[in-house]
């Protein structure tokens, strides 16, 4: 996992560009980190350094949305990848392609569930929960709660249980 040469450094950066290109959708910083570390593609510190360098070189962008930071590849990054793709070892490409399908589906599912909260005042938080299908919002609910702890708990539980909870709400309203 240690990188010894400038060629290996370049390969790792190109591999990151390849991953962002193949995901073909913005992915959060934590999703990126989880994917890279879970699949033992590089260590945490190397990943953070490369993400910063790719961002500084404008090969990827970082955009804030729903209190999360999302990465995506830029046109400059795509052009660079196209030009230097042959420098990524075929074994690495095959490995990434093999694990990408499942990971991409998991990310699509998670991107369809939104949970966020804001502090309205010292004793009130507004929690917003959403379900999005085919880029269309199909469910939205706002709740006022009295503590930061409750707001975080509701958001965490919504992210874990949204499909089941959404189904139960619909059934309660229909029956």
UniProtKB/TrEMBL annotation:
Gene3D superfamilies: Winged helix-like DNA-binding domain superfamily/Winged helix DNA-binding domain. Pfam families: DUF4364 (PF14277). This is DUF4364 family protein. It comes from Alkaliphilus pronyensis. The lineage of its organism: Bacteria, Bacillati, Bacillota, Clostridia, Peptostreptococcales.
């Amino acid at each position: 996992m240690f990188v010894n040469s400038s060629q290996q450094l370049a390969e790792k950066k190109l591999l990151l560009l390849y991953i962002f290109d193949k995901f073909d959708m913005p992915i959060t910083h934590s999703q990126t980190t989880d994917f890279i570390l879970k699949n033992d593609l590089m260590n945490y510190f190397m990943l953070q350094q490369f993400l910063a360098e790719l961002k500084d070189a404008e090969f990827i962008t970082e955009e804030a949305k729903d209190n999360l930071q999302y990465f995506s590849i830029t046109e400059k990054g795509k052009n660079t990848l196209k030009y230097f793709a042959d420098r990524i070892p075929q074994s690495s490409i095959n490995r990434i392609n093999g694990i990408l399908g499942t990971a991409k589906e998991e990310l699509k599912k998670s991107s369809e569930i939104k949970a966020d909260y804001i502090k309205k005042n010292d004793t009130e938080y507004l929690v917003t929960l959403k379900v999005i299908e085919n880029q269309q919002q199909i469910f939205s609910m706002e709740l006022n709660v009295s503590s930061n702890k409750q707001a975080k708990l509701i958001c965490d539980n919504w992210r874990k249980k949204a499909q089941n909870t959404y189904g139960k709400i619909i059934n309660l309203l229909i029956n």
